[in-house]
Amino acid sequence: MSVKENLIQLKNSLPAQVTLVAVSKTKPNAMITEAYEAGQRDFGENYVQELVDKQEQLPKDIHWHFIGHLQSNKVKYIAPFVYLIHGVDSAKLLQEINKQALKNNRTINCLLQIYIAQEETKFGFSFEECETFLRSDVFSQLKNIKILGFMAMASNTENEEQVRKEFRSLKQFAEKTSSLLHFPSSILSYGMSSDYKIAIEEGSTMIRIGSSIFGERSYSK
Ligand SMILES: *Cc1c(COP(=O)(O)O)cnc(C)c1O
To answer: Has residue 129 got a pLDDT over 60?
Structure first.
């Protein structure tokens, strides 16, 4: 099936409250354009330089989501235009985003990444760290960022119950901390090609889908 067919089929299957972010990392502009022409406006990228290049070359009304691991020294390159930064995983990074947002005379929307998986390799705050941070003075002084919700990745496992349990734990945390955020009904960004159906059943409002739309990625080039 084509990108357009994949996209339309997926979109038609989603409940109205779920936003689809089409993850276009490693994929050429021609494929993004095909999705754009089918009506898609939210795209996700993982690498700063690739995102900057694509933003320059593609239509200006695209909402660019940064979903990868962001290094503090690279925030400045995406600060002028990024729509939502999903993977904010430290106070230091958030302070840098705030600084660059101020320089660009704007507010940058962010999601805090929470570590829910039973794996060593995933980034993010623990629930305790996150709640402590949301209650801290450091956080209350950052005026050029808006925390709209949370992002997470579940364990990469065939065990659906495990994945479900992890998503559910984040949903419960979000309910518990909703009064601490800058937005009343928080964005919950979880669910990828392999687990988005479970994610939606467990309260996701934003799914990040790459391979089911654009095909498998090859990292060889
Ligand atoms: C690559 C990536 C995705 C999309 O993964 P697919 O399995 O291709 O749908 C979603 N979220 C993050 C953080 C990613 O890095």
So the answer is: yes
Q: Is the pTM of this model over 0.70?
A: yes
Residue count (the chain):
221
Check whether domain 3-214 has CATH 3.20.20.10, yes or no: yes
Q: Please report the atom of ligand 1 found closest to the CA of residue 21.
A: 10
Q: Position of tokens 């990868």?
A: 68
| Cα–ligand 1 centroid distance for 177 (angstroms) | 26
The answer for residues whose C-beta is within 8 angstroms of residue 112's C-beta and 6 or more apart is 88, 89, 124, 125, 130, 133, 147, 149, 150, 151
Q: Which atom of ligand 1 is nearest to the CA of 216?
A: 8
Q: How far is the CA of 23 from the centre of ligand 1 (A)?
A: 6
- Residue 211 Cβ inside 6 Å of ligand 1? The answer reads yes
pLDDT in tens, 130-176: 999 999 999 999 999 999 999 999 999 999 999 999 999 999 999 99
| Rounded Cα gap, residues 104 and 80, in angstroms | 6
